[in-house]
Amino acid sequence: MDYLALIEKKIGRGEAGAKISQKIEGFHGLLTREAAAKLIASEMKLIEGRIYKASEIKEGDQSVDLAGKIEEIGKLMEFPSGAKLRTVVLSDSSGEVPVNFWGEDAVKAGGFHLLDIVELKKAYMKMGKLNIGYKGGYEVKEKAKLLSVSKAVESKGKFCAIGKVNSIEGIKEGNFLFEITDGERSVPVVLEALPGRGAQLKVGDSVLLEGVVLSGGRITVGGRARMLLRKNRENIFRGMLEGIEFERDNAFLLAGGERFVVERGTLVKFLNLKGLNEDIDIKMIVEMKMPEIKGRKVWILLEEKEGRKSAVQAELR
Question: Of 74, 59, 77, 70, which is closest to residue 23 (Cα–Cα)?
Fold first, then answer.
């Protein structure tokens, strides 16, 4: 894009040249004329709403809009002044760019997941990193798809998966080895980047693996990948919703290869159908909602009676 032409069209050649020289001086001569023109065009809102590519962003760019996939989530840094900072690395088809989140945004960014798609608005480039300032904003446009173990073993490239710890082998050749399952299939996991975290694992724990890859039939947690651990209580189930079935007068939540009896009232709350009349066929509503809720994380408070597990309370997460 010819940024100089945009500026000249707006304010004339003479004034445009003066503004560019002034901008270059303001950056101690470190900006090229092209970069200075792009910065001025952005400040004048002549390129407002344009979605940048990561490789296009230059030092001094303002009002940068960018959409990218989360490749890395840094630790929260707190300074003596009280300032908080977290750096997140985003990628698109052209490359990667680090993004600084400050203050409460830095805290909230800890809730991102690897492979989420995030859209930035009005960010600015300083010292090689994009920053979200008080004029900027961000939004998670698409959450990373969470796979069951059975689906994970068919994946190519990076993915996120959830499962229960089925067995633990321990440290071997500097890596921590264990196995996870979804009740139907099991797969070994290699903790390369975080072998010390393996010591916290217990059989039955739920683990969320983010940004991992499948290699040689094993899930490898290395480099930028993350493992989030959830300790399970005996009466709490966490997993992925596989479906809802009806059998005579009973309804069942299907998750983690198990069936949990669920009463109509609990199912109504689970599906967020407050005020649903008793005479309405809930089976039809379930069929309509299933495409949007199947595969989502589910939390179930259990009660075991007469050899059957019942869902006293259930929530989509």
Answer: 59
According to the model, what pLDDT value does residue 48 have? 61
Give the CATH class of 49-144: mainly beta
Q: Rounded to whole angstroms, how far apart are CA atoms 262 and 267?
A: 6
- pLDDT at 63 (0 to 100): 86
Closest CA to 146 of 177, 196, 182, 186: 182
pLDDT in tens, 265-278: 888 888 888 777 77
pLDDT tens-digit readout, 126-185? 999 999 988 889 998 888 888 999 999 888 899 999 999 999 999 998 899 999 999 889
What does the DSSP 8-state code read for residue 184? S
Distances (CA, A) of 153 to 44, 80, 122, 136: 51, 46, 39, 39
Q: Which CATH superfamily is domain 146-230 in?
A: Nucleic acid-binding proteins (2.40.50.140)
Is CATH 3.30.70 the right assignment for the domain spanning 236-316? no
Say if pTM beats, i.e. exceeds, 0.85.
no
Nearest partner of 10 among 36, 44, 42, judged by Cα: 44
- DSSP letters spanning 88-155: EEEEETTEEEEEEEETHHHHHGGG--TT-EEEEEEEEEETTEEE--TT-EEEEEEPPPEEPHHHHTT-
